[in-house]
Amino acid sequence: MNHRTILSTLSGILLATHFCGATTALADSITLVGGDVLQGTIVAEGEASVTLDHTALGRIEVARDRIALISRTAPAIAAAPDAPVQVTPTAVLPAPVPPPPAKPDGSWKFALSIGFSGSKNDETSNWDVRTAAEAKRETESDRTTVSGEYFFKTSDGVETDNNLLVKALEEFLFKDSRWEGFVLGTYQNDNFQAWEQRAGAYAGPAYRLIEGDALNLKLRAGAGASYEFPTSDWTPELLFGDELAWRIDDRSQLKQGLEVYPDIDEFSEYRFILRVDYEVALSAKRDLMLTVGARDEYDSYIEADGSTSNDIKVYAGLKYAF
Q: Pairing state of beta strands 109-120 and 90-93?
């Protein structure tokens, strides 16, 4: 082999190597969400997908949801008007399946609420305060909620309302079932009632009648007893209740709760607590909210003077969740 032949052969090898390297270097690339990179020639782009000619896989259509980055190395070359159209088989990569919702880890979440109003002049002085707090945790098998609510009100320097209500609710969740079990403990102090203090304990089943992204409704039924002191009176009671949560839009929601306690010995006597709350988020994180609500507490027990107990409280304030 003479020198000219050797030089010609080496030049051919170098030219082929340079051409292959240039082809690889000039390849378009699509970086997927998971980090994988597809290289080839981008032949089409649409709102939902990008089509790439891959040297090994052929023509691939990649959904936009799977693409993290697109890199082009050279502009596409338009084909001649009279060039024959080549139909290439297309492989489609589907959009990724959204991850399942995160499982509750049992961490505690808290919320604090406060509302205050008052007026004072030379003749009158009125002050009205409401504070509330809630702590909540949830796992795959149970849910715990502890809440407290306190009302205090004065009129012309005279105390007209002093009411504390504390509730502890433990809910037992069953996998792949809407049925639940619950245990409820309550404590209430009211300086303007004959019983002054009342404690109760109840247990029973619950059922999630409506369960969705925007609307949820739960029903409860159980039995237990309440104890009033210092009178030392025991009252066996049933418990019927519901819990409604309606997410109206991304910023606001409506909550409603009802608890009815019929006296087992005298079913015509009963008491109930009904509340309605409307919340509007004031921040993008929904951690600061404006809340407006009402609570109606009724007791059918009739005093000696013929009066009935029906205590309605209306309030507004701010709520902070963390």
A: unpaired
